[in-house]
Specification:
Layout (H helix, E strand, L loop, with lengths): L1 H18 L3 H34 L10
Helix pairs in contact: 1-2
Length: about 70
């Protein structure tokens, strides 16, 4: 998460220095923050998929007796 934000800041800073347009820095910051949220969302979906596979696995289900 931190790496994505730092990469966005670095890209934004580089674009600002290249073009001398100050709002490009903030565009890079926003881009980095959005990328970090996307990474968290992808990790959540991956963990959810793994959990659903474990729920369906008969090795991890409990046998209920009456």
């Amino acid at each position: 998460m931190v790496v994505a934000i730092l990469m966005g800041v670095a890209i934004g800073y580089g674009l600002k220095e290249l073009t001398h347009i100050s709002w490009l820095f903030w565009l890079g910051v926003i881009w980095g923050v959005l990328a970090s949220f996307l990474n968290v969302y992808k990790a959540y979906k991956n963990m959810q998929k793994d959990y659903e596979e474990l729920v369906k696995d008969p090795k991890y289900t409990q046998n209920k007796t009456k």
